[in-house]
């Protein structure tokens, strides 16, 4: 009799697993690809898909990055229904597990890439699963992107010998050194879409200035320094977690 109970329980769990597995799909499919030509620093691309969940009760989807291959200047992203996460080459935080609640119906997912004027190819592999049935519902998603060409009107690194911006990569505090003898200095930090993230005016005389970068998201940014309305430096930096 005990063996019969065990057998019935196993059959019931198998049926439950199949039910959960069938109720969770990815649309339009598990593979996303993109190829493009570089034009400006703001080049980026996003591919949208959906977690399709047909059960009436809400559930929790878990996901994590399994593998990636990207240029050191690239930033790639994955968005669950509630939040976007950004990945850069070599970040220790890349392989953390994340989760989000999904309801019945289509729940948006999104892959993204920002090449930062670096022509190359890259890919990401993301594993997703429902917490209620991790084995039967596991889905592996694949995203690949490639860029050719060059940024004809992109921001390029322009430096003057006396100026330095450090550390790079940066975490919480960025220092700009060598501002001696410069007047009406403005330091601006842009994200890869060209949005101003930090803007600071420096009172003279001051040989250096510090910028608090702790609130910036991980990724690639550009620092510009203007003196009396003229651009004297443009520098690409990387922000760490």
Structure notes:
The model is unreliable at 1-21 (pLDDT under 50). The protein has two helices and 17 strands. The chain folds into two domains: 17-149, Immunoglobulin-like (Sandwich); 164-239, Immunoglobulin-like, CATH 2.60.40.3080. It is mainly beta and 241 residues long. It has a five-stranded antiparallel sheet. A five-stranded mixed sheet has the order 2-10-9-4-7. A four-stranded antiparallel sheet has the order 14-13-16-17, with no helix packed on it.
How many angstroms does the end-to-end distance come to?
Answer: 57 Å
The CATH architecture of the largest domain is Sandwich
Radius of gyration: 24 Å
Helix-strand topology string: HEEEEEEEEEHEEEEEEEE
* Assembly context of the chains: single chain
Helical percentage: 10-25%
Strand content: over 45%
Overall structural domain count: 2
Q: Quickly count the helices.
A: 2
- Reading off the top of the CATH hierarchy, the class of the largest domain is best stated as Mainly Beta
Q: Find the CATH topology of the largest domain.
A: Immunoglobulin-like
Structural class: mainly beta
Strand order of the largest sheet: 1-3-8-5-6
Main sheet: strands, sense, barrel: 5 strands, antiparallel
User: What would you give as the CATH superfamily of the largest domain?
Assistant: Immunoglobulins
Query: Quick one: how many beta strands?
Result: 17
């Amino acid at each position: 009799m005990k063996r019969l109970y065990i057998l019935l329980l196993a059959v019931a769990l198998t049926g439950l697993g199949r039910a959960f597995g069938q109720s969770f799909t990815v649309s339009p499919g598990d593979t996303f690809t993109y190829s493009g030509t570089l034009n400006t620093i703001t080049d980026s691309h996003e591919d949208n898909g959906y977690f399709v969940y047909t059960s009436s009760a809400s559930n929790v989807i878990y996901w994590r990055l399994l593998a990636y291959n990207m240029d050191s200047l690239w930033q790639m992203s994955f968005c669950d229904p509630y939040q976007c996460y950004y990945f850069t080459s070599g970040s220790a935080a890349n392989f953390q597990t994340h989760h989000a609640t999904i309801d019945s119906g289509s729940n948006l997912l999104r892959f993204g890439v920002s090449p930062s004027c670096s022509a190359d190819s890259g890919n990401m592999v993301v594993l997703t699963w429902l917490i209620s049935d991790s084995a039967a519902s596991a889905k592996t998603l694949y995203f690949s992107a490639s860029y050719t060409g060059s940024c004809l009107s992109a921001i390029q690194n322009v430096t003057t010998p006396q100026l330095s911006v450090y550390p790079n990569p940066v975490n919480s505090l960025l220092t700009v050194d060598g501002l001696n003898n410069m007047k009406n200095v403005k330091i601006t930090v842009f994200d890869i879409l060209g949005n101003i993230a930090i803007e600071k005016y420096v009172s003279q005389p001051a040989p250096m200035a510090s910028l608090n970068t702790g609130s910036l998201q991980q990724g690639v940014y550009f620092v510009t320094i203007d003196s009396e309305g003229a651009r004297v430096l443009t520098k690409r930096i990387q922000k760490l977690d």
